[in-house]
Amino acid sequence: MSVQRGVYGGQAVIEGVMMRGPKWMAIAVRRPDGEIAIHREEVRSVMQRYPVLRLPLLRGVVTMVEALSYGISALMFSANQAMPDEEHLSKGEMTVTTAVGFIVAIGLFVVVPTLLTNYVKALSASPLLTHLVEGGLRLALFIGYLLAISMMKDIQRVFQYHGAEHKVINTYEAGDELTVENARRHSREHKRCGTSFLLYVVVISIVIFSLVNVDNVWLRILLRFAMLPVVAGVAYEFIRLAGRTDNALVNALSRPGMWLQGLTTREPDDSQLEVAIASFETARGHGLPG
């Protein structure tokens, strides 16, 4: 079977997996009664209407925003399938929850390191030392956050579905038939993983943030926030390249991100692999009318 790497991606959700391909986005969720609920919708990227947005750096920002939008829909569907009917969430509730999470993340990973490093800046005449300390704090907070949530029982189950998502995509990209048996023997690591993307956002931010050095700490925070799209765009280009090549240097640079996936993935069981396969096959358009 001839396959093209980098075409399909996914996301673990509550008791399920979302898969996204060139034409379809699909979500498969294991319901409390054991049945697999499936939802699919056509992918409509703004890049199809405005080709200029496919340019390097721009496409990374657009892809990130669209992934967030699809991710909210996928989480809402999965939560409503996995929860009793009386606990169903509305799209508004899920959007507010996501927005609050985004604000907390900005505060934790952008504002806090910059404020803390302001004391180092006052004691040191070296801008390089200041930027290295800030980057080190940001990296430590990121890894510490992943360590903390990886100990939560409910999150560990989501991380099992994350592992299932990777295994199924790896099975497809290896040209193997999509069966539970084949998926079971493939790696739960993947070079295009969102965990790797976030790690490289942190690392690349150290370099890009160092290009702007201002004394006022609040202006510095504002500039950090304004530069995030550039950081995300560069990180996306690297992840995109990594997913499409087996170059030795690119593989070596990808290793830290894949090591970090040891925190955000767990070995899935066969029923979770079955859900991930159902999602992937739906995203491919298999079994759909027309």
Question: How would you portray this structure in words?
Answer:
α2 (58-82) crosses α8 (217-244), α4 (127-150) runs antiparallel to α7 and α7 packs across α9. This protein is of the alpha+beta class. It has 10 helices and 4 strands, in the order ββββαααααααααα. The radius of gyration is 20 Å and the shape is globular. The protein has a 4-stranded antiparallel beta sheet. β2 and β3 (24-30) form a beta hairpin. Helix content is 64%, strand content 8%.
Write a concise keyword list for the protein shown above:
single chain; 4 strands; 290 residues; 4-stranded antiparallel sheet; alpha+beta
Please outline the major beta sheet.
Answer: 4 strands, antiparallel
Helix content: 55-70%
Average residue-wise pLDDT:
88
Structural class, by secondary structure, is alpha+beta
Give the SSE map.
Blueprint: E1 9-13, E2 16-20, E3 24-30, E4 36-42, H1 46-49, H2 58-82, H3 91-123, H4 127-150, H5 153-173, H6 180-184, H7 194-209, H8 217-244, H9 248-264, H10 270-283
Antiparallel strand pairs: 1-2, 2-3, 3-4
